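Query form — protein UAA transporter

QUESTION: What is the three-dimensional structure of this chain?
INPUT:
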Amino acid sequence: MATKTVQRNHMAKKSSGPLHERSVVSEKPNGEGRKTSGTSVAKAYLQLGAAQWALILAMIFGGCCSNVFTLEAIVKEDPRAGNLITFVQFLFVAVEGYAHFFTPSRPPIFLPKPHVPFTRYSIIVTMFFVVSFLNNYVWKYHISVPVHIIFRSGGTVMSMVVGALAGKRYSKAQVASISLLTVGVVAATLFDAKKEEPSQVETTVATTKEFAIGMLILFLAQALSAVMSQITELTYNQYGNHWRENLFYMHFLPLPLFFLARKSITDEFATLSASPPIALVPASVAQYVPPLSAPQSIVHLLLNGATQYICVRGVNNLAGTATAVTVTIVLNVRKCVSLLLSIYMFGNNLSLGTCLGAALVFGGAAWYSLESSRLREAQKQAKAL
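ANSWER: The structure tokens for UAA transporter are given below.
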């Protein structure tokens, strides 16, 4: 999710919470050259050809949902693998970004001069690293993937709080939608915390304590992500919206910080390397080529990094051409699909209360996005008069 992660991170001017965003990051940045002439899904469809829509949706649903699947597969094997997961995700995006921006005429780092000063990037990058680290660190406290998805989908609540503190004003409909979303997050969290645990008192107490710590970490990550969104929005307003550059530097610059966690990363890699082997050659062609296998969890780890990149690119492609409402609808549907896949493929049992809470979260987020889009259109029409 791996974050997550996307809510989440070229995250300026968001109308919904973070992917994993994003995850890790926010999942819905404004793309360079975004077209904002229409607000309907029909108009958005006309902006994109059928082939481009198919590619974008394949990247989002294929990449993001596969990312959630591989993430949960890794966490099932080793809940403490958060540092390694974060490092691999950062590495994949950074390597691709470096190849894209590689400039032979600018040694020694061979990168063009960024549009945003490094002093400003240092603030955003540090916060993004901490948010990503916390979102993946929380797995060691046995927070389920469905609850992780639901809670992070409620990031709009924190964004509104931070926005209000920064002087922004919100309509009654926006406040009502966020109130609905908040009730959903609280309900889903409380009902999940009350699920039946083993009968031993010691185990129950420890699990309850771990759950509380995990949710506190997620809350802190959401708060930092909301503050980071405001700083990113100010940066875009001042220096222009260069989402691809922002995406690259947010993953490239923090790489040296992983040296501080090198011991846990190597330990986590050793644990995943001890997982059962999986054949890399299909049985249909195994008789023609030498047998090749690798630890199952290492394969999942590499796929997680690759699908994280595919997911981010798909979201950015959509956000760069479609309307904000379209992006929000697609991402909310994607989160619902990820939630259902987690329940179906990994046997995660959600109580009725948790399911109702999830419905309130996704419904509140959609309502907030629609209202925000309506207000933006009204402001545009007022300025045009």
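ADDITIONAL NOTE: DSSP finds 13 helices and two strands in the chain.
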